[in-house]
Design brief:
two-stranded antiparallel sheet; 572 residues; single chain; 22 helices; alpha/beta; 5-stranded parallel sheet
Amino acid sequence: MNIKRAKQEIRDSIEAYLSKDEFGEYRIPAIRQRPILLMGPPGIGKTQIMEQIARECGIALVSYTITHHTRQSAVGLPFIVKKNYGEEEFSVTEYTMSEIISSVYEKMEKTGLKEGILFIDEINCVSETLAPMMLQFLQGKTFGNQKVPEGWVIVTAGNPPEYNKSVREFDVVTLDRIKKIDVEADFDVWKEYAYQQGIHPAVISYLELRRKNFYRVENTVDGKIFATARGWEDLSRLIQVYEILGKTVDREVVSQYIQHRMIAKDFAGYLALYYKYRTDYKVEDILKGKWDPITLGKIRTASLDEHLSIVSLLNGKLSELFTECYLTDAYLTKLYDYMVYFREDQDSLTAKNLMEKAEADLEKDKKSELLTKQQERIQKRVVSFFENASGSKSTSGSIGSKLTGSDKTRSGSYPAGGRSAAAESKDPSSNRNYEFVKALFESETEAYENRTDEISLTLQNVFDFMEAAFGDSQEMVVFITELNANYYSLWFIRENGSDQYYRHNKGLLFDDRQKMLLGQMEEVENILNNGIKYYVLPIYYLLLIKLGNYRIIFTIKVRKIERANSQNAQTG
């Protein structure tokens, strides 16, 4: 299965393992809670999904790569104690607590979370001395003489033998005590993740064109050459920072992450063309609704790859804008909760009190380790807003001033006709003024609404350009498909609407449905031509299309042919 389905399977298992009855007992006793073994190639996100699952389930996570451990650190160190058996005294060997088990208890104490995931990576690559301990761990959930605490689910991960020479195969006795999930690389699933993580659009568009290069591991006379999902993600981040610093990403840089010479060379060439098209076709002007007949004529004579690169450039820019809008909306939503709290007790609270509360909430959430980086940045923006409103620090020294791009807050703005927060702070009563802080909040909201209108206009400009340059061609289909694959694009369009999107997406949905139905009809015709006896059953397909604020459901009745039985199929 792909990593998305595997994540859901693991989450379902954890929720089942941690489910309790009316007496507070686990519905599945610890002895029946099979450890989960996630088996798949390296670099596809096995470790990363564990962090996501822990946050989504609200439980703790302790993660170890077992190949970094010796027998002593995993099991504990031996020491001698004296014990009496009958009338004689004996020297007995005992062991200190395992470092891994100790880390579980430390995590419980630090976060206050009593349930969690103990994740052991590279479980099937342990040393020979540690192998028996790993079998004991999987079979009995113990390290040495210490058991894994109740309420902690064991999840492990390993690589198939073709990817690692150190792999040890588990025997049937062990395999019969674990829940094994095999995963494989899947570009479509990764692309959904890539849009949410802000992967560089050049990486996404290149892999869309050359899907076979998304994940490849090959053996050559010079050793293994490979390209992995992890490599593409790390390379993407480097490209983004290099763009900020004005540095060049060439073939040599790419090959440090994509260790497959042919793919690295191919992507480096694609990236160079990507930058060239951005300049040649003046993408920034297109976003503003400015282009001329010369540009359109140049595009129409270009190759399909060049067309798709232009579509990718436009999609990438839009994605940045949609993400910015989403983060600002989340920030204002969080800020509104604090403003409600402020309003309900405005006579005794000050902006400084709210700043201290926001800081305390941030530290509390960070301590629980359940915050995503995105959520952490949003909370920092809230802290920065109240910091500026209270005049505790100047704008230049605030948290907001340290943020860049879409993370940067607009907390430096002030209500019309009002003084700055720093100036107001000279007035002893200013920090108790709810109305002043409310005006700042309204200013932030107004700026967000204006920015949203600007982004809506940019989306309209891109659609106008796409229609002028390509019409209802496959380039438009690619553009709409990428919008549909991007979480932030769909969020923005759902919140703000886009008549052009709905019109083109409606046609795309009907085209897909028509292709599916025609394919089924052709399949049925082939079956009937073969003279095989079948039953005919009515099937209803529901097609949902959203037009503005209206949702229209079409019911399409088709006939699905089911085989009567295998004997009839054989006899015709």
